[in-house]
Amino acid sequence: MRASLSNNEDNPIVVMDKNRRSLLCFVFPSILVIFAVLGFFEVIALSTFKLGLVIFIILFVILPISYKYSYNFQRSTVFLNFLNVPRSADYIHPAESYNLKGSRNLYVTFGQVKLGTWQILPENLQNINNAGEDFFDKILDDGQNVVIYNHGNGGCRLTEHRIEMYKVLRKFFHVIAYDYRSYGDSSALPPSEQSLVEDCLAVFQWVRNRTKSNVFIWGHSLGTSISTHALLKLQTMNIQMPVGLILESPFNNFKEEVSEFPLAKMFKFLPWFHSTIVQPISENFNFDTDKYICSINIPVMIMHAEDDKVVPYKLGYKLYKEAQKCRIRGQGQLIFHSFSSKGQYGHKYLCRAPEILDKISNFIQLALETKTDKKL
């Protein structure tokens, strides 16, 4: 079950020790030089020019170089697992706290990892009264389709736009929504691409142990790369595969996404932007969706809003074009749907597009027909 861990990304202790030494050797002398040049007492009452100079040096010199040599700093900006968790978060009672009737909280465990998970019944079952744990366990194998939702970075499974999407998905599926390690109430373990892929595989195995129904994988934003990578791993395992992959607001690879990320744009004018930000990120964190998707042997649907400011539309479309080139006919159909900027769906709210219902329904039909054709 546990995938092998890459040397450059999942063995950070040695790297981090080296990074800390390099960081300390650069940052603290730099700060001392600033204070020495300006004069300690003058710093207390800096002129506007001097204050601006100090801020510029800290933001655009010290910060980028600190980023280059700090694996932890990089990881925190990639996964954003410390952001957007409501203080009043209630993971235990999704039905009562988030108006998700017919849902329960549970924990998927493997090894030393615990993943907070919600099982959300299809809309046609949501009003069943007195549904106990045994009922939830058995009903997953009622023949209805199942979807596993892999969220993006930041927040957790109870973030508002994700709950909106669950309510759309339950019109078609049993919904399994979970938090990767370090998110929500899941185990507080360091995240990496490989470890989050392991989490996805564990949740899929949990589902597959309980049902032979058709399973779809849905990924949003960073979750699109995790989903695609996990499917690549699944194809090497002796297990009944998912029948379809849906990618909402994906990027082609993380190297190109880094340059477009809102927080990074303020540094793009710097001559050292590539060497201090883009290069270390691309070396330590891959997320090469445009490579993974080439070997996925099931139908794939990509959806992207034209006004997405977090993962630009052009990156989702670029993924589609690259996939067209590398995928062959027998692997499963590849579909791309764009959503007009007039809808103002941005990065998070394709769930509010009226046309998304037909697109999901049509893709389900396509995926099931493809599965049938492969059996013939």
Automatic annotation (TrEMBL):
Decide whether keyword Translocase is in the record.
no
User: Could you tell me the Gene Ontology terms of the biological process aspect for this record?
Assistant: monoacylglycerol catabolic process; phosphatidylserine catabolic process
Per the database record, which ranges form the AB hydrolase-1 domain? Answer: 145-234
Record lineage:
Eukaryota, Metazoa, Ecdysozoa, Arthropoda, Hexapoda
Q: What is this protein called?
A: AB hydrolase-1 domain-containing protein
Q: Which InterPro entries match?
A: AB_hydrolase_1, AB_hydrolase_fold
Q: Where are the transmembrane segments?
A: 21-41, 47-67
- Which Pfam families would you find in this protein's record? Abhydrolase_1
